[in-house]
Specification:
This protein has 334 residues and is of the alpha/beta class. The protein is built from 14 helices and nine strands. It folds into two domains: 63 residues, no CATH class; 249 residues, Vaccinia Virus protein VP39 (Rossmann fold). α2 crosses α3. The longest helix has 21 residues. The radius of gyration is 20 Å and the shape is globular. The N terminus is likely disordered.
């Protein structure tokens, strides 16, 4: 039985059938699927065994399963990554423009799926699953509060929050309940339009929306007490991430918190500007990038931020040879 399924999974160009998905539930989650509809939707969206593995291993249910045992993502003797330093504002703007065009396209064609790559949230299915999509945003705020509790710190209800990459407002709605004011930013105008519509439907009146079309536009925003960003920075080349964090940390109020996620290591990853411009520039695909911990720590130190916690998270699937981290910093008062 297993050999027959595996041989079918190796035929990568073909869509997978429902039997493969059922066995994935059994092997990864040790249970049967919720219903046949979920199986059919996953079979239509996942086309390779690697996609199935990533989908199930990235799920919270898999990470919390009592029998889940995994080796460390890294063993400690990995070679350093090569990442070009890009300081020229013109080149930074060129990179950001490329990312903006890509994500505006996603916002036009599959806005919800571009936020969470779950087949339930594809354009032809999202209407029947929109409540699940919206409810999932609560998890990010709960993780923030858990991190604050673990470090013995608190964020007042009168706080102003800057959310980087609000998408269609999935997490924004929950941040609006948690904070007095939310400054919601995104690079894609099409995503922002849907976010406004969603927050209006929620009756939220404490959210301002801003398009991040230049990194310099962050310099004009009001100061804030919380910086929040999850599954966003990873889609930007390292020079953009560094430039964004530099400006965000500068605008963070003394005593404020920076809570954000970004992959920090991947075996074999490199960013060479000339190669990137030649091979990737102009392609409309969901890019996944890495920013070393050392870079993040250095930029934070330059702005007087103290590291309270850094944990390995599951946002990118906890694949061997790759690390994604969630950081919690606090800016010193002096």
């Amino acid at each position: 039985m297993i050999r027959r399924i595996l041989s079918r999974l190796r035929d990568e160009p073909r869509p997978l059938d429902s039997e493969a998905i059922v066995w994935a539930y059994r092997l990864f989650l040790d249970r049967e699927p919720e219903n046949l509809q979920s199986v059919r939707e996953m079979a239509a969206a996942l086309r390779t065994s690697a996609e199935i593995r990533r989908c199930f291993m990235a799920s919270e249910e898999f990470s919390l399963h009592p029998d889940t045992h995994r080796r460390p993502s890294l063993i400690g003797n990995e070679k350093p990554m090569w990442i070009d330093e890009v300081e020229d504002p013109t080149e930074i703007a060129r990179l950001l423009d490329h990312i903006a065009r890509t994500w505006t396209g996603f916002g036009d064609s599959e806005p919800h799926y571009s936020v969470i790559t779950d087949p339930r949230f594809k354009p032809d299915q999202v209407a029947q699953h929109i409540e699940d999509f919206s409810a999932s945003g609560r998890d990010g705020v709960e993780r923030l509060d858990a991190a604050l509790a673990r470090t013995g710190t608190t964020l007042g209800s009168d706080a102003t929050c800057l959310e980087l990459g609000c998408g269609v407002g999935r997490v924004t709605a929950w941040l609006a309940r948690r904070c007095a004011q939310v400054i919601a930013t995104d690079i894609s105008q099409s995503h922002l339009a849907l976010a406004r519509q969603h927050l209006n439907g929620e009756g939220s009146s404490n959210v301002q929306f801003h398009q991040l079309n230049r990194v310099e536009s962050l310099d004009t925003l009001p100061a804030f007490d919380l910086f929040f960003s999850v599954i966003v920075l990873q889609h930007n080349p390292p020079p953009i991430v560094r430039a964004i964090l530099d400006r965000v940390f500068a605008r963070l109020r003394p005593g404020g918190f920076a809570y954000f996620q970004v992959p920090t290591f991947r075996v074999g990853y490199e960013f060479r500007m000339e190669q990137y411009l030649r091979e990737e520039f102009g392609k409309k695909k969901m890019e996944m990038h890495v920013v070393p911990q050392a870079t993040i720590m250095r930029v934070a130190a330059q702005h007087g931020l103290e590291l309270l916690e850094v944990i390995e998270d599951s946002y990118t699937g906890m694949r061997p040879g790759e690390v994604s981290n969630t950081f919690l910093f606090r800016k010193r008062n002096s």
